[in-house]
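Anyone able to model this chain together with uridine-5'-diphosphate?
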Amino acid sequence: MAENAAVDTSGAAPEGGARYKRVLLKVSGEALMGQRDYGLDPDMIRQVAEEVRTVVRMGVQVCLVIGGGNIFRGIKGAASGMERASADYMGMLATVINALSMQSALERMGVSTRVQSAIPMSSVCEPYIRRRAIRHMEKSRVVIFAAGTGNPFFTTDTAAALRASEMGCDGLLKATQVDGVYTADPKKDPNATRYERLSYLEVLSKDLQVMDASAIALARENHIPILVFSIHTPGMFAEVMAGKGKFTIITDEERE
Ligand code: UDP
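re: yes, here you go
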């Protein structure tokens, strides 16, 4: 676990069978598109919100980083002639739209939430304040981190690793389209096999497409395990929290 004075280091596991006390879930914008080509699918948002609610009810403190690729990616804007930094700010604004829609879905289910944005927009949500975010989680509120890191040339994967480190999370969950990390893209290669466990270094040296290299490096530095699982299997987030189900875990070689 990352060193963090605000985190309870008593080692007490939460009630409800979870092995983790505080986790960050990264959901890509694309996961929220469902079968659509662009934008948000309300059924998909509801499904993710239900997964989060189940884990909150297990007694796990949960925070979220939501991507924005379903609406805008900076690199695409840059390819069409826009200045890269401006395009990236548009991408960050897209993540705020997604965060607000996730907040609304969770609140409708009775889950208390706060959105904190790395780009302050005071009439829409709170600004990012680390200690305040920790306090919210201690009160069982789900904190949704919007606008990535607040800096162009970064991604929401890196934002996820950064916030997980700052929050003292004991797990960084990456919800993907498949149930873990594979030797090759399982949608293209029928011989691809799933890894049960990997080290950060293996992910980097084999150039496995899990998260950006900078996100992996940050998680490695702070010894935060990364757990990769499918967002399309109902109940899997809770299963992973209990150490069951199908997922790939990425940790230090010498740990766990
Ligand atoms: N972005 C950025 N800085 C950040 C996070 C995101 O500039 O710290 C921009 C970047 O343009 C990116 C877009 O926001 O393409 C959407 O984020 P991302 O591509 O990570 O979303 P995802 O792939 O998870 O949907």
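Confidence is low (pLDDT under 50) at residues 1-11.
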